[in-house]
Amino acid sequence: MPGPAYRLAARNVIPGPYRAVMVTTEDVRRMALSLPRAEEALVRDRVKFRVGRIVFAALSRDEATLGFGFPKEERAGLVAGEPTKFFLPGKSDMRYNWVCVRLARIDVPELRELVVEAWRMVVPRKVSATVPS
Question: Looking at the domain assignment, is residue 2 inside a domain?
């Protein structure tokens, strides 16, 4: 079995001075499905992750971006703070607690934070407490 250096070399790498490893759709899937009660669903050709019928994260059709649950009152600040990374959803989705992120602009630890916090918005506190921050 190949070692860690081989696995890193095989993944997508963001160009630039820091050469951070880019998040893949498999990273998103692994992270979301590791959470209690989470399941994957294909809805209108889009992969969505949900608890029951409530979606907490969804990949775009081209799998370049991820929509995720985020408090409405804080999303403008998130987008304004890092507009090359985050953006608001389409007009029809503005009524939801939702923000989108370009997967090429984040790393795995940041993905974990975004997905886990989105998941926490849709599960009971007792279930949320079973997953460390």
Answer: no
User: Contact, 131 vs 51, CB < 8 A?
Assistant: no
Tell if the pTM clears 0.85, that is, is over it.
no
* Order of strands, sheet of 46-51, starting from the edge strand that comes earlier in the sequence: 38-43, 46-51, 54-59, 65-69, 98-102, 86-87
> Which CATH number belongs to the domain containing residue 33 in this structure?
3.90.1150.30
Is 111 within 8 Å of 31 (Cβ atoms)? yes
Tell me the pLDDT of the chain (133 aa) as tens digits: 333 333 333 344 444 444 456 799 999 999 999 999 999 999 999 999 999 999 999 999 999 999 999 999 999 999 999 999 999 999 988 999 999 999 999 999 999 999 999 999 999 999 999 998 7
Report the domain count for the chain: 1
> Measured between alpha carbons, how far is 80 from 59 in angstroms, rounded to an integer?
22
Domain span at 83? 24-128
Calpha distance 21→17 (Å, rounded): 12
Residue 4 lies in a domain: no
